[in-house]
Structures are given as C-alpha cells and as structure tokens.
Specification:
Largest sheet: 6 strands, antiparallel
Radius of gyration: 33 Å
Structural class: alpha+beta
Order of helices and strands: HEEEHEEEHHH
CATH superfamily of the largest domain: CheC-like
CATH topology of the largest domain: Chemotaxis protein chec
Helix content: 25-40%
Distance between the termini: 77 Å
Length: 208
Amino acid sequence: MKSYLECWTEVAASLFSQALAGEPELVESLPKPLAAGAFGFAATIAGDEEGRFSVVLDPAILDSPLVGEGVDQKAGWGELLREAANAAAGELLAKAGRKCRVEKFEEITGESKVSRAFQLKAGERSFAILVRDEVRAPRPAAQPAARLDDAPAPAPPAGLSPALTCCWMSSWRFRCASAARSCRWAKFSISVLETWCRWIATWPTRWT
C-alpha cells in the first residue's frame, strides 16, 4: 500500500516539471545540510492518515525564477507545495483508498530530522529539497479491559446440595474479586475456600 510520502514524491516530480520554468527534474539523493536561510512549508494532514509533512528548500533556489519572472519566489513555492500536498492526498485516496485532507499549511524555517532528500535539477544547477514525513495511520483507541467482577456468574454444576451451591457461588465471587488484586493469592485462597466448602458439605455425615 502506498504511503503519503510515496504519493507526494510522484505528484511533486510531475508537478514541478510542468509548473516550473525549464522543466526541472526531481530526483532522490543523499541528505546534506542546507545553508543558512533555508525555508520551507509544513502541511498538517488529517483523516485516515494524519500527521505533519514538511518540505525544506535550499535558500539558493530563490535566486532562480523557477516559479516565474517578476513573481515572489518564496510565495510561489508556498502555493506550489500547497498544491502538491493536496494532490498527494488525492493520489493516496486513488491508489490506497485512504481518505485524508490538508487541514493546515504554514511556513517553517527548517526541520531537525529528514525522512528523504531530493535534488531539483534545473539545467546546470541543482537545489536540495529535504522532506520530513510524519504522516501515519492513527492508532485505534484502546478498549477498556473487562473487569472479572463484572462478569455474570456461571450456573453451578448440577447435582450440588443447597449448602454446596451456596459455597460454590461464594467461591466464584471471591475468585473474581481476588483475581483483580493478586492471581497467585486468589488461587491459594480459592483452594482453601473450596476445601472448606467440601468439609462443610460433609459435616452432617460426620455425626451420623
């Protein structure tokens, strides 16, 4: 199943080559530190996949009019990366059946960790683009553990006398309550209680 990062990579490669001047190529590369002044944008994803997806760009990319002549290059990159984030969400739905959306999009100055690194090759120049992917499927909510003492008592074995039935029911209730505190102590106590019940049940025969 495709991840959001894989969908973004495919979408961004196609979008950059179509929307940027000179049809630059986006290729995967080894990560390397960016120079001072690096900038980027982060998308907050919500839905079947959720988390933060960040893209940080080499500051030198602003010196090339890739998003058009006479255009604010940083603002242009922001719009382009917003479009890529939304398109990746659509691609994830189409390829993996996972529905999500871009809930928030904001400018950032950098990231401390990197998930994948790319080079945008534009003619004789190339620019580093770093991506941090924190988009994951949400964990299912934990279900509360069932309490033993809330469980209905089973029917006592057939053929028990009233005295043994009473002892059997007491043993069950005691067993449930004790198990919540200490299984080991409960087993020992139950054994003693059952022995006591059997002894009580045979009490009349001891004096006849």
